[in-house]
Amino acid sequence: MHTLELPYQVEAFFELTPDFVCIAGKDGYFKNINHAVVNGLGYTKEELMASPISAFMHPDDVQHTIERRNDLFKGNALLNFENRYITKQGEVVWLQWTSTYFSEWEIVFAIAKNITPRKIAEQKAAEEFVAVKSLTQHFKNRIEEDKKFVATELHEELAQLASVVKMNMDWVKMNETELSETAKARLEHSSLITDLLINSIRRLSFKLSPPMLDEMGLAASIEWQCNEFATFTGIPCKYNNINLDEAKISVEEKIDFFRISQEALNYLLNRKTASEISISIEQADHQIQLQITDAGRGFDQLHVQHVKEFSSLLNRIASVKGKIQMSETEHGSTSISVTLFRQ
């Protein structure tokens, strides 16, 4: 074992700095180290210099570190490179290195900061985020399940009961010939109202949990949504399928986009400036974009910022870590684009 002797001024720097400072040879061994390295890794100076540096690294980081060192030998400085070391006590230490290679002496001069507390905090934050995300997804799934249950009860129970009431009224109207004209008119009116009730129940059931979202997919569900909106409001609304491969979209993503378009249309329903609406979905490798365009001024940024009805849409987008953008063309049409970034 040979220790590289240092000038007095450099030796003083070695011992005064709290950072890990070392000189390493091209052969992969320490040539000199300061006390911070010894104290941080728990080995004696002799132990550290007797074995290859890679012997003290975390096994998962060895190959990556070797590759970066080879780049360093080619003249590419190593800046803020992070890897892990294992102390003599078996603990993991995260280090952030800045290194320079001196080819004339075939040595590497390196300084590292111990970033273990920061890494522990980041890992804890990541774990908490995963836990919150999992809990959020659990609640979203539970809400969708509850909506599906209510939708089924509406469709299978209330709608059928209303149908039975209508059938009974129709039977009375056809078989009781001695009814007064007033009674017949009442029955006719009740029959019409029952038809409206059945249609309303079915429409509400579909809005709560559209069965075709599972059976026919997202495109068919949004197309139905557009048709319903146009029928109800008299405002033209169409769906354009630009580039959508539903086989590559998860069930959760389909539900999110259906609900986002539903929230946007509910918002436009309360606006008097919407005139002609189009909805499109475009899919790329790492993102999916839903765009809703209105030929009028349905999406007015100043109005949106002060309207509570828009908050549910923003909350839905935030829950999937989506990005929303609002824009206006020179022809006066306005639009919102919702982008969902995928892993």
Structural commentary:
- It is a single chain.
- The strands form two sheets. Strands 2-1-5-4-3 form a five-stranded antiparallel beta sheet, with helices on both faces. A five-stranded mixed beta sheet has the order 6-7-8-10-9, covered by helices on one side.
- The chain has helices at 8-16, 35-41, 45-50, 62-73, 116-175, 181-208, 212-215, 218-233, 251-269, 301-304, 311-319, and strands at residues 20-25, 30-33, 78-86, 92-102, 107-114, 237-243, 277-283, 287-294, 323-328, 334-341.
- The protein has three domains: 8-114, PAS domain (Beta-Lactamase); 115-209, Methane Monooxygenase Hydroxylase, Chain G, domain 1 (Up-down Bundle); 213-343, Histidine kinase-like ATPase, C-terminal domain (Heat Shock Protein 90, 2-Layer Sandwich), CATH 3.30.565.10.
- It has 343 residues and is α+β, with helices and mostly antiparallel strands.
- Helix 5 (116-175) runs antiparallel to helix 6 and helix 8 (218-233) packs parallel to helix 9 (251-269).
